[in-house]
Amino acid sequence: MICGGYLRENWGQVALEKMLGSMVSRDHSCGQWCRGGVGLAQSLQGLSPIQRHGVTLVYEGRLDNCFDLSANLSVSRDASDGEMMLEAYLRWGVTFARELKGDFACSVWDSRTQNLILTCDSLGKKPLYYCFQNGALLFASEICGLFHAPIPVPRVVDDVYLALALLQDPDERELTLFQGVKSLPGAHTLCFNGRDVKLIEHWRFPRNPPPIRGAPEEIVEQFCHLFSKVVGQHSRSEHPVGVFLSGGLDSTAVAAYGLNQGVSLSGLSWALPKDHGGQDERLYIERFKSRWPNMPHTYVAPDRGLLDIPPEALQFQCGYSGEMRHFVLHATLQRAAEQGLQTLLTGDGGDHTASSHGDDYPWELLVRFRWSHLLRLLREERQLQRGWRRSLASLVGPLTRVPGKVLLAARWRAFLRESRFVNPDFLEATGALERLQSRMPSGRFLETNASQDNRWLMYQYGPWQSLAREKFRLSRLYGIECRFPLLDREVMEFCLAVPTSAFRDRGWKRLLLRRACRGLVPSEILWNERKVAPFPDIAERLVSQRARLLADAARWRGLPEIQARLNLEQFQLALDELERQRFLKRGRQDFRLVPALLRAHSIGVFLEFNCKKVY
Question: Which among 401, 369, 408, 399 has a CA at the least distance from the CA of 381?
Fold first, then answer.
């Protein structure tokens, strides 16, 4: 982790240690550098900040293109990632981050130009927060580090972000839970000259990349070579590496490619109860274990309660973020930490990377009355799936679900009627609906090939970045770093350039990844389209903790800060409805209410912490 900043007064060693110590969960070593009003610190195996030619750098993370950089920069291959970054800055200046590939965040103080520079990787998976006030700039890998800075940072809740979170759409690249505290967006560099802050975008997904052509098998072979290299890069660690293994295609693909290269991986899987109401993925996990019998593996039972999330996980982010499997994730991370794992590979991102276009795209065309584009998409589906019947089925499914990113304002109001837990006055005062409408994609994204356009739109503006950052933050609570090979920049650029037919054919979706895993993943997993559905079990768990939820709501009635934001009456009515209807018998149509309830509760917990200043 890194921290520091530019002050109007001199830094002290204790101040940097205090900022860094508030964030570090496992490695308490501290390397720091101070010169007057500039201070930099990092916690990375006791390494000190790197200095050369009047430039000082602190960083966290890793680089994946070290060999290419060593050749371009004439640096030894044995140089550390930080030394590579520093040489890249000396060669390319402020835009040096565009030449770096990997997951990283770093800060540079250039005494020659008197500039403080913050930057992160192109995909923004490593969070970096900053606060600019009264001519001073502070930064830290976690928000709590800013609150331990030598100058006070106000802990005032940002109601706009909170309202978006209650709408289950807090996908703001810069806003955070606190006013004045901003998140550095991915692919951006911040330059501070002692007076002004300037954001520079150093990279974005290519709008029309050169197409990758060739026979289907040739494209699959290219993807296999690339994915093997990427998984190897993400497995690079001096400590034991684990893999979060489900019975699905994404995580088994990551595990298989790692094991095939001789990487020593330890698998961790959820052990959901047999009566949880969804598909039992243990059948597929056991098939994978029989294919790779030398992989150590552990089943993790989600024995903690659904609401028993560590308080520190809720203090600086919006709790569950609609992710109904958080209670299992915490149990898995805890077990991984007990086994000494410090790196955990996940299959997150397969739904974004390995799909031809987002499931919500047909809905977007329909609500915008883009009939010609919808007809074009239907024709594409007919060509890909060899028939009108399958193509209609592939489009009707997404059209029957309420999407989360591309709804018009009227659709958001309908969605709110189901969420119900937002105080109407609070929602109107924040202008959250208007903000969501302004973020919707404009018609210019829909003027060419439908699938290609939406793939670019999903990569450039989709929710995958915030989801990756959230899991990364949660894992750090246990001293673990989550890595996402399917969300690697090179993999996503490759998938953006291949034709849609590489993803979908003859009724099968995600065909590129399926074909790339032949011989490595059992066929029962490769050609299984059923999705695990643990939602009934989670709804049942929520009902079983109704008394605790009601007690929390009753306590919150005495806190004006919560009453002004949450509709506690609707919160209680929804719990009563859960008790009566027992979601296990009602089907998927009501599952949207469960994450909404969880989100409202987690935000209530956060607001209660904030009222009491429990940090």
Answer: 399
pLDDT digits (tens, 9 = 90+) for 152-193: 898 888 998 888 888 766 667 788 889 999 999 989 999 999
Q: pLDDT tens, 256-302?
A: 999 999 999 999 998 765 555 455 688 889 999 999 999 999 998 76
Handedness of CA 591, 593, 596, 598 (dihedral sign): negative
Specify which residues 267 forms β-bridges with. Answer: 243, 297
Q: How far is CA 63 from CA 230, 281, 383, 534, in A?
A: 11, 34, 41, 36
For the residues of 512-567, what is the DSSP string, one character each? HHHHHTBTTB-HHHHT-------HHHHHHHHHHTHHHHHHHHHHHTT-HHHHTTB-
Instruction: Provide the 10 A C-beta neighbour count for residue 490.
Output: 15
Instruction: Please provide the DSSP assignment of 167-194 as one string.
Output: TT----SS--SBTTEEEPPTTEEEEE-S
Q: Are 415 and 407 in contact (CB under 8 A)?
A: yes
Phi-psi region of 385 (alpha: psi -120 to 50; beta: other; left: phi over 0): alpha
Enter the pTM of the model.
Answer: 0.85
Q: Which of 384, 381, 403 is nearest to 392 (CA)?
A: 381
Q: Pick the closest to residue 308 from 317, 319, 299, 296 (CA basis).
A: 319
3-class state of residue 200 by DSSP: strand
Band of pLDDT at residue 232, cut at 50, 70 and 90:
very high
> Of the candidates 315, 319, 345, which has an alpha carbon nearest to the alpha carbon of residue 332?
345
User: CB-based contacts of 212: which residues, under 8 Å, 6+ apart?
Assistant: 219, 222, 494, 497, 498, 499
Sequence-distant (≥ 6) Cβ neighbours of residue 385 within 8 angstroms: 391, 394, 504, 505, 506, 507
> Residue 233: enclosing H or E segment and its boundaries?
helix 216-234
Taking the mean position of all CA atoms in its chain, how far away is CA 442? 24
CB 436 within 8 A of CB 412: yes
State the Cα–Cα distance between residues 531 and 175, nearest whole angstrom.
33
Helices (H), 298-439: 326-338, 350-353, 361-367, 371-385, 388-399, 409-419, 424-430, 432-439
Instruction: Give the DSSP letter of residue 238.
Output: S
Mean pLDDT, rounded, of the chain? 79
What residue type is assigned to position 214 of the chain?
A: G
Q: Give pLDDT tens digits for 521-563.
A: 999 888 886 665 545 566 677 778 888 889 999 999 989 999 9
